[in-house]
């Protein structure tokens, strides 16, 4: 495989990359403006929005050691680990700056016009302006692309941007198949993309002097630039080593002990990274675990002399993206590593596989083949690639269980049909008087075993990040929940588990049902409500509270929901049979009151 031009390697016009880079740098000249916007003159299809980076350290970190906050789901409802209900974290200072941009009505009007005119919206930024561009792109995807499949896909091009979000953000971005929209250019020694890996307390004064240097654009970097570079790289080392140990499955208790005392940075890369090697070449990496390792190992130095020289070069390089890309973007010198082949990319890679020779050349260009840590670097990168492949193998394993799940669900659906002619599905299973009830319980337990394994794999991050967004598994999970959860509820109240544990909807509901419910709610953008599969849990609690104040109103409200669920075929009409517990509950209250 030979090297190719970046424009051929990715379906992004070189003209767009260069215009975005130029506007990203130009935005710094107008610090009073929140953003600049411009159409690309020779093309009628793109509108570029560029954001300036801030030169105040207070706009980089806010609050805690690393300045992170939980994502505001009102702005970014998708940036979470759906089934396990874990919310991602983003840099609070960057989020507040983006929030200020969003509060500007002119910004929304211009974006809306670009969308209406069928233009591709390109968000870009250099330095911390890149962080604002990333958040703007995530917002755009939530507001436009997630709501409409007809909207033209956006593009985010950043140059020397610091990291913005944690590993949950990466999971969410890949689950939504949004990774292809984020392309981050990084000069090999540029220190800025590594800054977020350090706590503010260790670099605050030095960082402000570095920002002042960027502002003055003087020839001489700060005297403490080497110390600043060394501090940032030291923290990057801690994060990369910790992440590599996790990837390799280290069970060393010392790892957890150290991390409990020394808090590692929560920030992680996501999207595609284009590393500018400094040798005229570009190396493309779309595996986020590999990107993190390259961010550290490519910044390693072997001598004291190098520390001084490279530390100064790292600051100059941060200001040199436009010149470097102008010279090398059109050259056939691009290599792609660790292609994430599961996702169908609009920004597609023409490279199907990378031969050993090209890998060695790319690693050498990044400085990963030199020095005493070269072997560790290679091991870490191989582990990142191996983890990705193992996740795909794990998915193949559980995909092989689909037939077993379907077979058990078909049996239970047949059992449900038979019960519909008696007292109903729920009440028949709760009584468990017949042999067929026993067989239904066996199927219930078999399915619980399969689904509990899947949920445990999700908890350990052993499945592809896209798994929770796969329509087939969302549909299968919904079918499983609707058919089987009523049986779990019947079993729970039959054995009076509520007397020890409390109501089923409190601590009694298994995670497998919570996860599958949340998958559907996220995919269909539904509100977080008590679902139809928990109908019988509500009935049981109303039976227990019979005669209490407000019970009649609760029954009427539940009856309204039942009618809607039955109409939408989300609940069987056997719940209304003459001898069902729900019918008896209604008769008891409306005949005695």
From TrEMBL:
Domain named EDS1 EP is located at 411-587
Q: Which Pfam families match?
A: EDS1_EP, Lipase_3
Domain named Fungal lipase-type: which ranges?
48-197
Q: Per the record, GO CC terms?
A: cytoplasm; nucleus
What's in the keyword line of the UniProt record? Cytoplasm, Hydrolase, Nucleus, Plant defense
Q: Keyword Hydrolase on this protein? A: yes
Under Gene Ontology molecular function, one entry of this record is: hydrolase activity
Reply yes or no: does the keyword Zinc apply.
no
Q: Which terms does the UniProt entry file under GO BP?
A: defense response; lipid metabolic process
Which cell locations does it reside in?
Cytoplasm; Nucleus
According to the record, the signal peptide region is none
Database matches in PANTHER family = PROTEIN EDS1-RELATED (PTHR47090:SF2)
Q: What is this protein called?
A: Lipase-like PAD4 isoform X1
Quote the gene name from the UniProt entry: LOC105128609
